[in-house]
Design goal:
The protein contains 14 helices and no strands. Helix 3 runs antiparallel to helix 11, helix 4 packs parallel to helix 6 and helix 8 packs antiparallel against helix 11. It is globular, with a radius of gyration of 20 Å. By secondary structure, the protein is an all-alpha fold. The protein has a single domain, classed as ABC transporter involved in vitamin B12 uptake, BtuC (Orthogonal Bundle), CATH 1.10.3470.
Length: 317
């Protein structure tokens, strides 16, 4: 019942998002004005669908990564995954600029997968006595990869393109330019179907093997979901920081750590969170627009600090 109410509330916010913007689009004008109907079908509806799909997939990807790494402070933007996808996108833009968008996304996904695997490899080599060291390692790795990406972008005069990729923004979403995000929605459903396996894998290799499951296969599945979602969102709308961190933590504090139960809540909460942040960005300096990555970054950074302080207080208690 509560999940249904949350879904209806998210649907209400999505409907509100359809009618927020500079152009005068109302339910009545859609029926009576061809221009309003065209704006609705070509811009408003695709943008709202893109917001829902990006929010859902990134939040679920963050939950999957947290289960695999067994750390609540990890998500694609704090593990070097997003930065690795950006490096892959830059490289394919330099050497094969004429490739179709799907091929560029595939290259970005491969780099995201490699960056995440490198992050996990570093975690095995570094003695971690504090859970907070895990995201710090990921942030440092992401900083190094980001610096390399910026250097090559500067050398090849692609800093403008790099800024566009790293600045999540839905203002340019139109019909025909967001459909890749449906892949993220499918991957979120796949994560729900594999929730039990990912939950067991999150309990460690020995526990997983004792239950007769293939630990490596479960981890690889989770990493592939995270890498593909990160690449799809980056190629389509740019990076959205902290989304995969704060939403799973909020849901975990409310309903616990059962992944099978958490995935629908994380998906709905992620979609609602992105929709609300986008509406704030569109209305705060109307008729101008604040990129959603800035709104989510400010809110996410504040909540990240709150989670860190909360973890410290629990540790001292």
């Amino acid at each position: 019942m509560k999940l249904t109410l949350a879904a209806l509330a998210t649907l209400a916010v999505a409907v509100l998002s359809l009618f927020v913007g500079v152009s005068d689009v109302t339910p009545a004008s859609i029926l009576n004005d061809d221009r309003a109907a065209q704006v609705f079908l070509a811009s408003r509806l695709p943008r709202t669908l893109a917001l829902v799909l990006a929010g859902t997939s990134m939040a679920v990807a963050g939950l999957v990564m947290q289960m695999i790494v067994r750390n609540r402070f990890v998500e694609p933007s704090t593990a070097g995954t997003t930065e690795s996808a950006g490096l892959g996108l830059l490289i394919v833009t330099i050497f094969a600029p004429g490739w179709p968008l799907m091929a560029k996304m595939a290259v970005a996904a491969v780099f995201a997968l490699a960056g995440t695997a490198l992050f996990l490899r570093i975690l095995r080599m570094v003695p971690l006595r504090d859970v907070l060291l895990v995201p710090l390692v990921g942030i440092m790795l992401g900083g190094i990869i980001g610096a390399v990406t910026t250097f090559f972008a500067y050398r090849f005069e692609l800093l403008g393109s790099l800024n566009a990729w790293t600045m999540g923004d839905f203002s340019g979403v139109l019909r025909g330019r967001y459909e890749l995000l449906w892949i993220g929605g499918v991957l979120a459903v796949l994560a729900y179907l594999a929730a039990d396996r990912l939950t067991v894998a999150g309990m460690g290799r020995d526990f997983t093997v004792n239950l007769g499951m293939n630990y490596r296969a479960a981890v690889v599945l989770g990493l592939v979901i995270v890498a593909l979602v990160s690449a799809v969102v980056l190629v389509s709308v740019g990076a959205i920081p902290f989304l995969g961190l704060i939403v799973p933590n909020i849901v975990s504090m409310a309903i616990g750590d059962n992944m099978r139960r958490s995935v629908p809540w994380v998906a709905i909460t992620g979609a609602a969170f992105v929709l609300v942040c986008d509406i704030i960005g569109r209305t705060l300096r109307y008729p101008y627009e604040i990129p959603i990555s800035m709104v989510v970054g400010v809110v996410g950074a504040a909540m990240f600090l709150m989670l860190l302080l909360r973890s410290r207080d629990h540790a001292r208690a």
